[in-house]
Amino acid sequence: MVRQNEDKMTNWPQISVDVEGGYSLCFGCGQDNPIGLKLSFQWDGETARAEFTPTEFYQGWPGLVHGGIIICMLDEAMAYAALFEGMNCVTAKMQVKLSRPASIDEPLVITSSVAKKTRKLVETRAAVSLKDGTPVAEGKATQFVVNSPDREDKSKAMPGSNTKAVIWDMDGVIADTAPYHLQAWQEVFSKRGVRFTEEDFRESFGLRNDTIVSDVLGEETSQEEMNAVASEKEESFRWRIRRDLKPLPGVIKLMKSLTEGGFSMALASSAPMENIRLLTEGLGIAKFFQCIISEKDVTEGKPSPQGFLLAAQKLGVEPKNCIVIEDAVAGVAAAKRAGMHCLAVTNTHPKTSLTEADLIVNSLRAVTVNDLEGLLNS
Q1: pTM for the whole thing?
Q2: In this structure, is residue 319 part of a structural domain?
Q3: How many domains does the chain have?
Q4: Are both 299 and 169 inside the same structural domain?
Q5: Long-range contacts from 338-344, C-beta under 8 angstroms, 24+ separation
Q6: Pair (118, 255) in one structural domain
Q7: pLDDT in tens, the chain (378 residues)
Q8: Which structural domain, as residue segments, surrounds residue 238?
Q9: Does some domain include residue 298?
């Protein structure tokens, strides 16, 4: 299919896109376009995902979203799937199936992925659904590759990316989640007759769930039981923190400054994607990250550098040009093993436990872009 389409499109005009010019006025994703959709996509390594709540300005028949807007969402999502794979494309052919009308002021979820690709063409799939999973529309497209950067230039294909990056840990760095994690762990372990103390929690904070469960319940614990305990714990955690979600001091300001300063940003956490979405969407910070690494993307937890190295790879930035922001001992060790610079914040552990970091602060409130530039140049 792709090969046949490629042969048919050999007469396409030579097109180039102005990657350096930015995307701020794009109708689909441009954050400076006053009438645009301002879609902000996240990438988990396979799927691009965004959420959008259409207002009355995007309606056709009264109260219903215009079908053209739905199609625009699908087109934008498929373009982003190609972008995240390192290719700049224009849509050559698109097919759309609308399953049901969408109402204004009703949140929508837009997802997309790459199905096939060759040197000249990319086939993509996308879907729009309600938050409960009810299908609204689906589409597929054949896109013409107008330029496909080589590995060294791949980061230029992604909006907001550059040759320097900051990789954020989440729990204890972006939000003070520790009390809610502690309460959730204590609840699930108590049901199994095991006492889990604050000291136990401090020693395990930042580790993968399967590691914590195995350490507490014993290595003989079955995989089925570990999965059940972890799932129960995370549901309890999300229920608890949803009522009191707020960022730690200085986080939002620093993210905005880093974006303005030309840094790419990723989030690399050992948490489930459900937790990550709850925090990034609840705090309104999803738009700052070009990629997100969750527990399912890696096979090894911190202090393994696997998660940080994967984030750097997806951003197209060399490890030596990355700065990790961490609060956990294992996280700092992972950053250094990855060959990255590390800024540690004493939200969870004292300064004496974080001495392996390049810079240690008590709060991100006073940290500036110049401070991080200084780490890269040290």
Answers
A1: 0.57
A2: yes
A3: 3
A4: yes
A5: 338/305, 338/308, 338/309, 338/312, 339/305, 340/167, 340/308, 340/312, 341/375, 341/376, 341/378, 343/367, 343/371, 343/372, 343/375
A6: no
A7: 444 555 555 555 666 666 545 566 889 987 778 899 988 887 777 888 889 999 999 999 999 999 999 999 999 999 988 887 777 889 999 999 999 999 999 999 999 999 998 888 999 999 999 999 999 999 999 998 886 444 334 444 444 445 899 999 999 999 988 888 888 889 989 899 999 988 888 778 767 888 888 888 888 888 888 888 988 988 888 888 887 889 999 999 999 999 999 899 999 998 888 889 888 988 989 889 988 998 888 888 888 999 999 999 888 888 999 999 999 999 999 999 999 999 999 998 899 999 999 999 999 998 999 999 999 988
A8: 179-244
A9: yes
